[in-house]
Amino acid sequence: MRRAAIIVLLLLGVIRIAATYTTFSETADEPMHLTAGLQILTQHRYAVQFQNPPLPRLVIALPPWLAGARYVGHGDVMAEVMTKFYTLGQYKTMLFLARVGTLVFFLIGAIATWAWARREIDETTALVALLFFTTQPAILGHSGLATLDAAGTAGMGVALLAFSRWLERPSVARAAVLGAAWGFAINCKLLCIAYIPIACAAIYLVRLIREPETRARWRSIVTVLIVPPIAALVVWAGYGFSTAPAATLTAVHRAFPETVAGRLLASLDPDTPIPAPAFVRGVAEMIEVNKIGFLGYAMGQWSNDGWWWYFPLALALKTTLATLILLLAGLFLARHNRAFVEAMAAAGAILGLSMTTHVDIGIRYILPIYVPLSLAVAVAVMNMIRHRNKLVRGTAIALLSWHLVASFVAHPDYLAYFNELALPDPSRYLVDSNLDWGQDILRLRDEVQRLKIEQLGVALFGPADLDRLAFPPHSYVEAHTPTHGWIAVSDHSYRWMRPSGGWRWLDRKNCRRIGKSIRLCQAQ
Fold first, then answer.
1. Calpha distance 496→436 (Å, rounded)
2. Statement: residue 157 has pLDDT above 80
């Protein structure tokens, strides 16, 4: 019976995700990931944007490549990136083909979360953890795109499962498996370089405090020394065991002249072969972007440096309210449960690390946090259901039902989901990939055609080509210059200019919502 329930939950998740593929237009990052994967398959090299690893991009690009899509590589690379979803002549077909590969990582993440919960607790609690993982809107939304965030979440699940096995018996063999799992996670998302160790360290610290017998095995901790080299080998394999002369990484040295890596590169002979040069460059670029900052939006403000409270806010608004209440209840009712405390510690460590970054542009950057949170909320639910007080048991059932209703009502807008705390206009709090990533352009086109609009003013966010998507004649509208006729403004563009008084000439009474992220207005 439990096996059947597992299969049903996985199938429901897959069906719900797949049902969104052709509803949404390409989002901001998808063309780059698709192009990079096609370059590997077509030319057997990796040179399109290094801040992401090649493995998920290969999985994303394989179905389009099998259908005939290719990387040309002549002329302007970015021009080719922006046309990739149109190469086969069937836009929706390309959307489907590019996005279907991400299902692999959704399934890996879901099964790993279930297996980890089963090892740590029991079969029933593991089933509840799987239920929460496969119905959390943020997970469903990012699992339906040709991006790497679901892959990073899968890496977290696999790594925590391997770490659980090592904690049970810290042998060299299990440490090697943990190293391979960490390497796999890094190959899925470079942020896992930091997320995995800090989450595992938080769990280990709780285990040391709560179980004195763990301290008696302190000598076995030396087995973790094998983890980094195994992980490095797996990462190198993920980059095709590539090497390049140190001279090709001079850009890294210039960017970080005072760092250990920078000084090491400067000291090497220019002909010294460097393993996985694309990985080294990608990590360096990622650190540089975080150092410089990235323009983000929160609570009516724009900032290049971000805010320490950004990701706690995103988590509070992008997670179902029932999940948050259950986690809060767990702090009281499940505080003596080791697995609950460890999972919350791992989630807290990920959240704490994210609060130090300057790249605040979406909950997707902490999407792996839903692996430990799924386990924690499952423990909270089961503790409440098994409670002797009927009111507590009834509350658990009510909250679980609330979560499921919120999840299914959100269809198909999982990406733009916000809980009740953000109503009626989530764009007041967050935009970027939380709400407006360019995904509603196809919906806008359908509405424009239905209304027989002949001329359209636009201020839209995203990479979609309006001409190729058969929009009527259109022109860009300036936020501070009142105009007449039909105007489509995305929430990203709308909030971008609001602090300076832009768009105040739009009468909200004459506006309608297109999907969750575009305002279609008729200006008088």
1. 12
2. yes
Quick check: 191 and 365 in contact, CB under 8 A? yes
Average confidence (pLDDT) over 255-261: 63
Q: How far apart are CA 152 and CA 488, in angstroms?
A: 34
100-123 pLDDT per residue, tens: 999 999 999 999 999 999 999 999
192-236 pLDDT tens trace: 999 999 999 999 999 988 877 766 566 677 889 999 999 999 999
CB burial readout 223-236, b (16+ within 10 A) else e = bbebbeebbbebbb
How far apart are alpha carbons 98 and 205 in whole angstroms?
41
**380 close to 340: Cβ distance less than 8 angstroms:** yes
Number of H helices, E strands in the chain: 24, 9
CA distance 400 to 392: 12
**Domain final residue pick, 63, 79, 99:** 99
Residue 513 located in a structural domain: yes
Angle subtended by helix axes 102-120 and 54-66, to nearest 10:
130
Query: Is residue 518 in some structural domain?
Result: yes
**84: containing domain:** 28-99
Residue 499 lies in a domain: yes
Domain end call among 99, 128, 155 = 99
Q: Is the alpha carbon torsion for 444, 82, 79, 277 positive or negative?
A: positive
pLDDT digits (tens, 9 = 90+) for 439-457: 999 999 999 999 999 999 9
pLDDT band at residue 508, thresholds of 50, 70 and 90?
A: confident
When divided into structural domains, the chain yields a total of 2
The answer to whether 375 and 113 have CB atoms below 8 angstroms apart is yes
In a domain, 278, yes or no: no
Evaluate if residue 143 carries a pLDDT over 70.
yes
What is the rounded CA–CA span in Å between residue 378 and residue 127?
Answer: 8
pLDDT, mean over the chain? 93
Q: In whole angstroms, what is the distance from residue 189 CA to residue 258 CA?
A: 26
Strands (E), 151-282: 243-245, 273-275
| C-alpha distance from residue 12 to each of 16, 205, 300, 307, 349 (Å) | 6, 37, 37, 37, 31
DSSP 15: H
Task: Measure the CA–CA gap between 144 and 371, rounded to whole angstroms.
Answer: 18
